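Dock manganese (II) ion; give full complex structure.
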Amino acid sequence: MSVLLKKYRTMRDFGETPEPSGGKPKKTKGPIFVIQKHHASHLHYDFRLEMEGVLKSWAVPRGPSYDPTVKRLAMMTEDHPYDYAGFEGVIPEGNYGAGKVIIWDNGTWEFIEPGDDPVKALRAGKLTFRLNGRKMFGEWALVRIHGRSPKGNEWLLLKHRDEFANEEVDVTEVAPLSIISGRDVEDVNPDRIWKSNRPGAAKGPPTIATALRKQATTKKAAAKKSAAMPPQKKAPSAKRGATGRPTAKRTEGKAKAPRRTAAKRR
Ligand code: MN
């Protein structure tokens, strides 16, 4: 049992809370990420990256933003067990983090830089990585800052400039629901819910991922065709896809995203 989970375990009474105590074997190839929308005393988004056999965790009060000029505060919290990635449900009153939790997004992640060791980069306080989820993808970074907290646990989560960067779409607003149950955090099933940790296994409602991905592919193709022409500012088509299920569903079959196929094969 990982020594990294000691703090996590001492903070919880597993006779009381439906959260996992940890120790379930890992099922996927490649490191996973999960973002849980958690309505405790305040609503926040728990961003978790699998590293060293556990989930390195940050609480992001305002959630992620695709706008590269926006930096979101991310408070590093205790390492969580790998199987926490499958938790969606209610943490009972009187327990640490009491409140409702949904799985807002999940998938796999790849370390980009600096160097070739993500653990080392984490310790040094800066890492760049690629997310391949249903709402989150493209290049992101976590950077430790010298903030107000004496704990030294303040980081910033930010979007790097790439074909997925988008200043107009607020992903937390257009895609608020669980990718597992299709419920928002307030309506989460109070019964303990366990689902597969395998990314892509979830049969939730369609999300904006497909629409955004399609938009990015179109942008890329357009840029290739006329490199001389300045980029056009288009109305964010993702907004349509995210709010209305049918649109997202329609794009699902058409979108030719090689990444998607790769994810399915896992
Ligand atoms: Mn939390």
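Observed: Confidence is low (pLDDT under 50) at residues 194-206, 233-266.
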